[in-house]
Amino acid sequence: MELHLIDGAGENFLFPVNPEEIRINRGKGFETVNILKFGEFDYPSGEKVKEITFSSFFPLEYDSYCVTQDLPHPQDAVSTLTNFMVSKQPVRFIVTGTYINTLVIVSVHNSTYKGGEPGDVYFEITLRTWREPRVHTKAGTFSNSAASTAKRTIKRPDTKKTPKTYIVKSGDSLSKIAKLELGDSSKWQSIYSLNKKTIGPDANKIAPGQKLVMPT
Hints:
Blueprint (H helix, E strand, L loop, with lengths): L2 E4 L5 E3 L8 E3 L2 E8 L3 E9 L3 E8 L15 H13 L4 E5 L5 E12 L8 E9 L14 H10 L11 E3 L6 H9 L5 H7 L1 H4 L11 E3 L3
Antiparallel strand pairs: 1-2, 1-7, 3-6, 4-5, 6-9, 7-8, 8-9, 10-11
């Protein structure tokens, strides 16, 4: 299992240490209406925005519990999460091996530094599923002015930049795949750098059935 955050530019941030658990909070929204002489009434208004929370840490040095040997420096990892949080654009959250693959906003992340573990940074993070804003009139339809205003002010998230994958076939090589998928065999190194964990230390030893992430 791997946890990824991928922004609209294709930057893939892999959490180096898996959390012990991932909590997904769901709820049903209600709209409260006060009717004169009868009091308040609750009307269901659909599912609330989901919250996804988990905690882990960024290690300074590689150990067996890490999912990758290509570790970001803990301070750089914290800065990346902060940049995702202050950005007004959603990022894609993927947990491999599960159904979790959705656009989210990084709403909260907290960092903790422990005296007995210099260099490591512990964190807690909260993600909220992204819903594209929609502007409606009272009649429930877009007005011309509201629609034109929405087009000018609301930037739609670009979900087309999610990296594509390639399944290795018998007789394939990274240069052949780079030529086939990227149009340039010399870009094999870009494929290898994204898939070191899957391929291993030798770029020439790829095996049929391996799933490789393609550079955007």
